[in-house]
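Chain A, query sequence.
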Amino acid sequence: MLAPAASALATALVLIGAGRAPRYETARFGPECVRHRTAVHLSGSSGAAFLGRARARGVRRVVVFVPGFATGVPKGLHAARLFGSVVGPADLLLYVDWGSAGKKYDYLRDARTAAKNAPALADLLLGLHRALPGREVDVFAHSLGTRIVALALAKVKPSADRRPIVERAVLAAPDMTIADYMRAIARIPGPFDRVTLYVSRRDRALLLSTVINLHHRLGRITAWRTPIARTDVVDASAASTGLDGHGYAISDPALIVDIGRTLAGAPVPHADWKHAKPDAVSWTYLAPPRSTPSPAVCP
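Chain A, predicted structure.
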């Protein structure tokens, strides 16, 4: 079982955008859901000042949370807060605001914004790597956020020390093509040390994305026969989903715990995984009995 993250886990909002340096804003929460951005106590800081304080306070591990399509800041911060309780020992949780419109019917605008701001995410991750040498940087990304991560790390310059920029990454319900992913994972030296993809054949939102983009989406491919370097694939079709089958990785409490184990470096396979078929290279997530209480969801 995962050791819960320390209650002192700091959470920060990072605003990124094309042509500007990342801006860090510390976030503190009361007992209630964050319903409006004004309800989050924020204090702005330049990246250099923020990371300097993090270094001085002995930060050893940073978890970066990259939200997906139509995820506004209040909802996204709430989801990131849930992850903060299951990712294992960590000192800092960074929520990346990449400029989503936060509206379910503005997909094309979000897709354009994601592509435009991918270089800014690359700068953020490389900046963390340089400012916190020897510290572990892990990434969780969901939906369209996975495409930003892939685009960013496909073009980021290798670090001077040749170490991976991201130690462990979880890309859940990835809204991108296999080609998008391969351009990032095939880099030498690789920007990732290890990646776990969570996919689902019940993801109807990605079926619509396939129609819009005219290419199959990685998050719906559950049958794998050929291994990909440094990559595990988990078929999470058994997880609890909403109406569109897309939010399982940020709403199913049992799966969130499983993802936390992955980010904490638990050995593969987990107790809740099995091979889909003897010749398959992917794993199947076996949902436990519904005994885990659902986390509160902000409207």
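Residues 211 and 217 are 10 Å apart (CA to CA). The helical segments are 47-56, 73-84, 107-131, 144-155, 178-185, 204-213, 248-251, 253-263.
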